[in-house]
Amino acid sequence: MNSHFTTLLLDLTELVISNVERILEDFFVHADPADRFQKCPHCLGEDVIHKGIAYQRTVRHLPAFGRCVFLCLPAIRLLCKPCGATFIFD
User: Fold this and answer.
1) From the centroid of its chain, how far is CA 21?
2) What is the maximal distance between C-alpha atoms in the chain?
3) What does pTM read for this prediction?
4) Which of 13, 36, 54, 68 would be 75's cystine partner, CB 3.0–4.6 Å?
5) Distance set, CA 35 to CA 22, 38, 78, 85 (Å)
6) pLDDT tens track of the chain, all 90 residues?
């Protein structure tokens, strides 16, 4: 399925769709954040380091076409250089 069409259909502008699969009666949309980094939630600093992906999380989205839709998102770990806070990409 065309990922640009899927992004428009699901209105997920902050995500880049990499794959859509149907397993039984459910749709699983595999996505990555459009921005690789985000500001620190503690100090709002922009100097953060990408520390890898801790795990893959599955989030239930709004149903589409009478089927359940799940988003499969990576839990990207980030480290803020100025304050030393670690956090997961939100």
Assistant:
1) 16
2) 47
3) 0.69
4) 54
5) 26, 7, 13, 19
6) 455 556 566 666 778 888 889 899 899 989 888 877 788 888 988 899 888 888 999 988 888 888 898 989 999 899 999 998 998 886
Q: What is the separation, in whole angstroms, between the first and last Cα of the chain? A: 26
- According to the model, what pLDDT value does residue 5 have? 58
What is d(CA 14, CA 47) in angstroms, rounded to the nearest whole number? 20
Per the structure, how many domains does the chain have?
1
Tokens of 46: 């922009």
Query: What residues make up the domain containing 66?
Result: 3-88
Structure tokens at 79: 């480290």
Q: Position of tokens 């922009």? A: 46
Contact 63, 21 (CB under 8 A): no
